[in-house]
Design brief:
The protein is α/β, with parallel strands linked by helices. The chain folds into two domains: about 5-120, no CATH class; about 125-239, Rossmann fold (3-Layer(aba) Sandwich), CATH 3.40.50.920. The chain has eight helices and five strands, in the order H-H-H-H-E-E-H-E-H-E-H-E-H. A five-stranded mixed sheet has the order 1-3-2-4-5, sandwiched between helices. Strand 2, helix 5 (about 145-160) and strand 3 (about 165-170) form a beta-alpha-beta unit. Helix 5 (about 145-160) crosses helix 8 and helix 6 crosses helix 7. The protein starts with 5 loop residues before the first helix and ends with a helix.
Length: about 240
Amino acid sequence: MAPSSVQECYDLTVKAFNFSERFRQPVLVMADEVIAHMRERIVVPDVSELAIVDRKQPADAPDFVPYQADGDDVPPMAAFGDGHRWHVTGLVSDKWGFPTGDASEIDKKLTRILRKVLRFRDEVIEYEAEGLEDADILVVSYGCVSRSALRAVREARSRGVRAGYFRPVTLWPFPDAELLRAVSDFGVKRVIVPELNAGQMSLEIERAIRGEAETFSRTLLNGELFEPSRIVRFIEEVA
């Protein structure tokens, strides 16, 4: 998950812990350096107002199999010291937690690990969009760049350019279906991807939109942040 504000650093961290507990896996909060050094006012709710997800616990101690999932593909997880015995390894393991080289067992487990999230992707995916209803040009960005991108889109629209904005909050699962709908349903012809790296996200966006629009990658590698005026120039260049 990629926050674009100090508030989201807090909010998405709560969500990340909940997803981690729910799906029994690590969840990354990918706050970039710019967001990490920002100072903004945030609202910290009372703990009683937060929805907290607790991991699934084994029901019967004698029958506990540590990596055997039930209907939702997520095995219950016992806490260390509560009487359950199970093996932990960094290798691909069988249902008891012991390393395995059985190809069919490995395939089955890794497929389940992916499926346990992807089957609930609609509950996990989060994104932000603005100005899609009449957009010819769509600016797609995440993290700190999205703040400049949103400002740029609003500036471009004030100049009569029909620009739209799309920000993935969840980077995996990627909101590919949602982005494809944003492009195809509204007739977007060009997509601009400004990012502070060598253009890796533009490749993921090209995959998602399936040729429905032309993609323009714009990168910055000098340690500075994209100014909104620079993204406005990108928009006007391809308009």
